[in-house]
Amino acid sequence: MNNYLLKITFLGTEYHGWQKQKNALTVSEALETAVKNALGVSVSLKGCGRTDAGVHAINYYCSFTADINIAPESLRLALNSVLPKDIAVKKAFTVPKDFHARFSATEKEYIYKIYPSKTHNPFYENRVLNYKYPIDINKLNEAAALFVGTHDFSSFSATGSSVKDKVRTIYLSEFTQKGDIIEYRVRGNGFLYNMVRILVGTALKYNEGKITLSDIESLFNGYNRSLAGKTVSGAGLYLNDVWYGEEIF
Amino acid sequence: MNNYLLKITFLGTEYHGWQKQKNALTVSEALETAVKNALGVSVSLKGCGRTDAGVHAINYYCSFTADINIAPESLRLALNSVLPKDIAVKKAFTVPKDFHARFSATEKEYIYKIYPSKTHNPFYENRVLNYKYPIDINKLNEAAALFVGTHDFSSFSATGSSVKDKVRTIYLSEFTQKGDIIEYRVRGNGFLYNMVRILVGTALKYNEGKITLSDIESLFNGYNRSLAGKTVSGAGLYLNDVWYGEEIF
């Protein structure tokens, strides 16, 4: 038995996220079908985390064990030749048997893209949030700076999540102008369900003058989902990378 | 009667080009439907040129006359509110009655995008040509430099075109590295059917060592469609802008 790790990238528009579901096409299902078609084996992929419908990945990691012996680069080429064009394997590795794409992860980084304009841009559709109000990037960064550190992020999590420990540490949280797009980059040791989308929604709520900085600070001291911002569209969200301790993939 | 000029942008993936056709969705048809839905009038749009299926436009110009009196900015907003998300009106103008988006044009500029990689990129699908061979950008520019000037471009035109005068003047023809994409920019007083795609195909043929620079020069002196390069995919092609003499839109 070998444990294979795949570093993949995907455009999430056509998928109902990563995780297998009934009656909905997901990225893991498309990839398992590709493994079956390319290698003739049925595998169960373990992903580095769930992603929501329409969310994209610059780098996503998943692993599977199988009783096959194929060189990683041959595996990569075989999968790319049968995968749909909106998913690609960037690299393949063999990893120790106890490696798990989710539990072995130590840090994750997401990017969220915002296009501030009253007119929609056809090339950004399903890829960037079209935000119709004026943006003050300095205000966004005032809010973003508050997210850095170790906090209870309950107020920034979708209701109904079963995760109990809602304390996470954020290392980087910053909005940057990139051409006509504003890019939010956030890196931490873990993220709650919908957390990045609610962090962005909260920074935008502050930009609109509907919440103060001390309101935002108060959210860490007591649960108040409605005071935090709304969950912005998944279409602007990209998993950018995942770190695995000493390992570099 | 007013003559309105629209500066639009579109992602061409879902369309069979600009020009109206039976049994195929085209950009002009989508836009005429939007005018009908927004203003209640049936108009006949005159475009700045045909574009092929799957070809995109950063800036495309079209005009229509109608017995209405609406301020250009109101027209723009009304159309954007009913247009499909892959088409947007960037600006609207009133122009003199004799203005024609195609016949009044004095120069046009196209961009062609190439992603040189053995692995496909999900985010570039339908937008950038995935070219699987190694690229030497200096070689591409050696070929591109030959296209500048006034030449008979018959060999760089699709067969079956009814246009008689095949002499055109190219002012700018250059490949530039932009991140992981190679961008070809070409500006001229006019272009034959498929001409930009064949110019790019010819530069790539030279890059692959299958044609010499003197072969390319000889193409201007006698028709030889098969010696020129193949017609590369329309999905990498963007109409970038059109000039109208003294007028700036």
Give a short account of the largest sheet of chain A. 10 strands, mixed
Given helix and strand content, the structural type of chain A is alpha+beta
Number of domains of chain A: 2
Largest interface, by Cβ-Cβ below 8 angstroms: which chains and how many residues each?
A-B, 18 and 18 residues
Rg of chain A (C-alpha, Å): 19 Å
Residue fraction in strands of chain A: 25-35%
CATH class designation of the largest domain in chain A: Alpha Beta
Q: Helix segment count of chain A?
A: 5
Shape of chain A: globular
Helix fraction of chain A by DSSP (H/I, runs of at least 4): 10-25%
> Total strand count of chain A, please?
10
Describe this structure in words.
Two copies of one chain form a homodimer. Chain A folds into two domains: 2-104, Alpha-Beta Plaits; 110-239, Pseudouridine synthase I, catalytic domain, C-terminal subdomain (Alpha-Beta Plaits, 2-Layer Sandwich), CATH 3.30.70.660. In chain A, 22% of the residues lie in helices and 30% in strands. Chain A is built from five helices and ten strands, in the order βαββαβββαβββααβ. In chain A, strands 1, 2, 3, 4, 5, 6, 7, 8, 9 and 10 form a ten-stranded mixed beta sheet that branches. In chain A, helix 1 (27-39) crosses helix 2 and helix 3 (137-147) crosses helix 4 (195-207). Chain A is globular, with a radius of gyration of 19 Å. The model of chain A has no long low-confidence stretch (mean pLDDT 94). The interface between A and B is medium-sized, with 18 and 18 residues.
